[in-house]
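Changelog note: in this version the structure field was regenerated for every chain. One regenerated record is shown below for reference.
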Amino acid sequence: MQQRVLGVGYSLRSDDDYDFKKLTDALAEAERLRPDFIELPLFSLDVIAGAAVLPARMRLLKSITADRPFRYTVHGPLAVNLMDAPERLPQHMAVLKAALDAAAELGAVHYIHHGGLVEAARAPQMDALYAQQRDALAEVAPIAAAAGLVITVENLFTYDMARTTALPSRLAAEIAAIGHPNIRACLDFSHGFINSTLHGADFGAEAAALSPLAKHLHIHDSFGRLTAAPTYSRAERVAYGYGDLHLPIGLGAIPWRELMTGLSFPDGLVLNLELAPPYWSELPACMAALREMEETLRARNA
């Protein structure tokens, strides 16, 4: 029987790193920390141009990532929005398919895809745009299946109603309606916390609605607060608890123990830390906290 938890990992960033030197150093660090997975940031790796994978760049990236003592998940391009205006959908789909090809070449097990965002002016088209997203994901599901990938759709958030995105419960309904085993969820706890605050929803109930479909977890802390006053630095945002802070586990207000003991998750789960760069010194402690969460979930499944 497949284990409920595949393992734990963390996300890397590779901004301004065209020669992959930072990535190479980060992978060497990961070998010392021994995660089960590393989440590669396809959105900043410069291996896709004009919606096509660049063969030479992919060969270089594969040479750097090969023969490491961990497996990979891949976070796709952030700009792909399957609920965008219909005239822009073909371009989004072309980039998504190229990104899936790249993830397959890298041997990833999960591909993280952002759920759709809708501008307020398009709110009257909301049902049609949800249908558009379902159809688009159903189209790429066989591609993912053939590559051994699970596309995990991540719940997002907005700070106001100028744009909107699905609450975790609505995302769960959309994934269930697609009904394909290679389209599942990435439950981002901080995103769900903030979006629940905006919409006056119960965060615990929202997380419980999505968790049975969530094969991938994005774990980082926050206070679930909307920005309500001007701040002038990262430290001030933390002082006020505003926004999606990507804090170390335990520094915010997310009830991790309650969630890990109370929520139901599917088999094949990956717990992935998304830590903001200023807190990188806390990575070993956060990895230890992830291992504790993993053990809690494994004990529940024993």
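Spot check on this record: Residues 126-146 form the longest helix (21 residues). The mean pLDDT is 96.
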